[in-house]
C-alpha cells in the first residue's frame, strides 16, 4: 500500500513540474519602430499586401516620401506609431478602405463570399490626430514665434497635430496616458486593396513584438493579416 501511495505522489509531483510553453506567435511584426520617436511626425511604413513588398522598412522615407504616397497604387496598408492608413480618401488615390467585423472572430472570416453586401467601408480622412515629433515642434515654434509651450506636457503628453489616416483603424490600437499605454481593440478589420479587387483581414495584437519575451521597448506592432480567398 505504501508503495502505491508513493508512486501516486511521484506522478503528481511530476505533473506539477511540467512547463507549458506559450504557443509561438505566427503573425507579422513591423520591421522597426515608426513615428515621432524617429524625429519625423509622418514616418510611415507601407505594405503592398498583394505582393508582400514593404516600403520604408528600415529607414524613414527611404522609398516613399510623405505626400508621394497619394498618387501611388503599389501600397495598401501603412503604419505610423499606432496610426494606420489605407490607400483611399485623403491618403491615396486608390480604391482601398477598411471595415469593422467586430470583436475577435479573426478565424471566422476566410472567404470574400462571407462579406455582407452592405458592408460599411471607411476611407481615410485628413483629421486624425498624431503625435508630433519634438524636432518638428521646435521648428514650428521658432517659425511662428511661439514661446513657453513645451513639446511635452506632464498632464497632456506630447504635442499633437493632424494627419491623413483611417479613422476606423484609429480605434485598433488606442493610446492612453500618461503614463503611456497602448491597448488593442482585438477587432477584426477587413482591408480593401488599392485596386479594389482583393480583401485582407487584419487584427492588431500588441504594441510590442510578440516574438520577444523580454526587453522589447514597444513600437514594433504585432498583428495578423491574411487574404480572404
Write up what this structure looks like.
This protein is mainly β. 11% of the residues lie in helices and 29% in strands. It has a five-stranded antiparallel beta sheet with strand order 1-15-14-13-6, with no helix packed on it. Strands 3-2-4-5 form a four-stranded antiparallel beta sheet, with no helix packed on it.
Summary tags:
229 residues; mainly beta; 5-stranded antiparallel β-sheet; 4-stranded antiparallel β-sheet; disordered N terminus
Give the topology:
Layout: H1 2-16, E1 28-29, E2 45-47, E3 54-55, E4 77-80, E5 83-86, E6 97-103, E7 125-131, H2 134-143, E8 152-153, E9 157-158, E10 160-165, E11 173-176, E12 181-184, E13 187-192, E14 199-206, E15 222-227
Antiparallel strand pairs: 1-15, 2-3, 2-4, 4-5, 6-13, 7-10, 8-9, 11-12, 13-14, 14-15
Keywords: Signal
Signal peptide: 1-21
InterPro entries: HmuY (IPR025921)
> In terms of per-residue confidence, which ranges show pLDDT below 50 for 5 or more consecutive residues?
2-20
Element-level helix/strand string: HEEEEEEEHEEEEEEEE
Tell how many strands the DSSP assignment holds.
15
Residue share in β-strands: 25-35%
Question: Pairing-aware structural class of the strands and helices?
Answer: mainly beta
Number of domains: 1
Count of DSSP-assigned helices:
2
Instruction: Compute the CA-based radius of gyration.
Output: 22 Å
Spatially, the strands of the biggest sheet line up as: 1-15-14-13-6
Report mean pLDDT, rounded to a whole number.
92
Morphology call = globular
Relative helix content: 10-25%
Biggest sheet character: 5 strands, antiparallel
Cα-to-Cα separation, first versus last residue: 62 Å
Amino acid at each position: 500500500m505504501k508503495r502505491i501511495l508513493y508512486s501516486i505522489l511521484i506522478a503528481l509531483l511530476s505533473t506539477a513540474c511540467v512547463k507549458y510553453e506559450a504557443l509561438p506567435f505566427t503573425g507579422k511584426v513591423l520591421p522597426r519602430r515608426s513615428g515621432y520617436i524617429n524625429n519625423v511626425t509622418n514616418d510611415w511604413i507601407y505594405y503592398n499586401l498583394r505582393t508582400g513588398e514593404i516600403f520604408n522598412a528600415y529607414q524613414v522615407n527611404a522609398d516613399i516620401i510623405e505626400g508621394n504616397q497619394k498618387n501611388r497604387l503599389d501600397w495598401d496598408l501603412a503604419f505610423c506609431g499606432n496610426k494606420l492608413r489605407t490607400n483611399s480618401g485623403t491618403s491615396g488615390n486608390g480604391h482601398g478602405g477598411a471595415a469593422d467585423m467586430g470583436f475577435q472572430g479573426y478565424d471566422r472570416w476566410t472567404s470574400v463570399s462571407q462579406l455582407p453586401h452592405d458592408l460599411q467601408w471607411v476611407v481615410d480622412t485628413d483629421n486624425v490626430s498624431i503625435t508630433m515629433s519634438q524636432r518638428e515642434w521646435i521648428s514650428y515654434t521658432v517659425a511662428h514665434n511661439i514661446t513657453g509651450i513645451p513639446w511635452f506636457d506632464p498632464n497632456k503628453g506630447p504635442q499633437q497635430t493632424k494627419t491623413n489616416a483611417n479613422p476606423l483603424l484609429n480605434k485598433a490600437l488606442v493610446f492612453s496616458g500618461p503614463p503611456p499605454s497602448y491597448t488593442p481593440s482585438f477587432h477584426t478589420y477587413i482591408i480593401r486593396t488599392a485596386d479594389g479587387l482583393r480583401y485582407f483581414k487584419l487584427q492588431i495584437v500588441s504594441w510590442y513584438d510578440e516574438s520577444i519575451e523580454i526587453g522589447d521597448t514597444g513600437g514594433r506592432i504585432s498583428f495578423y493579416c491574411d487574404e480572404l480567398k
